Amino acid sequence: MAKKEIVEPSTRSTEFLSGQRPLLLSDLTSEERTGAFAAVSAHTSKTRENLAKFAAKVDHPNKEIAGKAKRAQRALDEGAVNRPYNHEDAIANTMQHFENSAKNPRAGESVHGVNFYSRNAAPIHDLVAGRNISPQTAFEATAKLSNKNRPGNEKSSLTALLNAHEKGSVTYTPEFVSKVHEATAGSHRISPEEIGKTVPFSQVHPDIVAAMTVPGVREGVSHALHNVDLAGIGKGGMRQNISAAHATLQTGKGNDPYTNPKFASYSMSHAEAPLPGTPEHQEYNMRAANIHDVLTGKVSGSQLMLDYHGLRDKNEGHLSNVAPTANDLHHRRLSYNQPAGAPYAAAGDLTMSVKGNVAKGDTKISGDTVEHAVLQDVVHETAKRLQEKHNLQYSVPSRMVNEAAWASTRVMTGNDPNPAKKEADAAHGAALKEQEKRNSHRASQMELF
């Protein structure tokens, strides 16, 4: 029996159907959008159920599991995911966090967190200069390394991988093979015929590369490596991050916007980020500076700015209010309206596998795709409403909302300490100690009399 052909609704854009970008909420019919919101609400219930399962293991003999259980119980006690998803609440919450970042920048910033993508894309452009690899492939690889990782570690791992691909090699000694096979049970195996051979690092199977970076394996395989920095590569975080990034560098294959919209959006955001000093980068920062001035009452939104580069009306690329944005744990926390202290991550990295009554039979649209479209729309709608609310004379870039909301949630959860405050606190602590020493000295002098 012939497979039933999928009839695409007229709402599906050419960009989505051709795989140029991830699904947008506007690609769905009104019935599908209703179904998408319902599916995301069901996902919040599933997340809470998962927290409850973790919390039940609080007396587990394994300390790590017991620790996760305590964090899960704390999240439940603080009201984590205790309500159905509400799109309007998610937009209002994101706007509040963006405005908080705009009103409370740090030294050298107009809006806290802005220029994340440009700042992290620039060194990658430098990194690939003179190498036989495109910046786009490097951006695709760094997206793989970003999962549950820090930007600095991403770049360190990418640098080490690129250097190893260019000059590195591995000798499959019996000791090397034995050690990596201990860490790759059930996955790729090095054949007996390959033992004793030296192969370019760029040709090593991704599972073997990931196994080599396991802390307990590194020392046992170091003798077989040539021009390979395992410690640097290991900063890519989880083994699947490293194997996926290595495979991307091997094949040049990018992140599929259908199966992994978050990574696809992350790599696109880096690729489109303007380099410092370019007209588009200057326009981006002028908009950020004007937003800060408007939100802090220094100027009105209707007050015109000088249009130095003729880009004030541009609403495309990095300046667009509907550019793809990566929605990670921080954005989930905002969109699902999590309490400030609730460790939402304690529920695990739950992928929304059920898409409800949306695009049945269409393999291009999964539960993860639907959730990403809904949460990305929060960012896009926030950008549009910020322009309207403050009467701004230009579009608010969606990636600016993305960057600033990230920063605000990192501050909220204690993951973004302020260097200036840390320095001030240290100076204050040192002053108190010095005062204590002087007081002690005075007391000892008084005893002499």
List keywords for this structure.
2 domains, 449 residues, 55% helix, mainly alpha
- Runs with pLDDT <50, length 5+? 420-425
The side-by-side strand order for the widest beta sheet comes to 2-1-3
Q: In percent, how helical is the residue content?
A: 55-70%
**Count of DSSP strands:** 3
Mean pLDDT: 87
Major sheet characteristics: 3 strands, antiparallel
Strand/helix succession: HHHHHHHEHEHHEHHHHHHHH
Apparent shape? globular
Strand content: under 5%
Instruction: Measure the end-to-end span.
Output: 107 Å
Secondary structure tally, helices? 18
Number of domains: 2
Gyration radius (Cα, Å) is: 25 Å
Which structural class do you get from the secondary structure elements?
A: mainly alpha
Explain this structure to me?
- The chain has a three-stranded antiparallel beta sheet.
- It is an all-alpha fold and 449 residues long.
- The chain has helices at 14-17, 30-55, 63-77, 87-103, 116-128, 135-145, 151-167, 174-183, 206-212, 215-221, 230-233, 239-251, 261-272, 279-295, 329-335, 367-389, 398-412, 419-448; strands spanning 169-171, 198-200, 225-226.
- The longest helix is centred in the last third of the chain and has 30 residues, at 419-448.
Topology:
Layout: H1 14-17, H2 30-55, H3 63-77, H4 87-103, H5 116-128, H6 135-145, H7 151-167, E1 169-171, H8 174-183, E2 198-200, H9 206-212, H10 215-221, E3 225-226, H11 230-233, H12 239-251, H13 261-272, H14 279-295, H15 329-335, H16 367-389, H17 398-412, H18 419-448
Antiparallel strand pairs: 1-2, 1-3
Helix pairs in contact: 2-3, 2-16, 4-16, 4-17, 5-7, 6-7, 6-12, 6-13, 7-12, 9-12, 15-17, 16-17
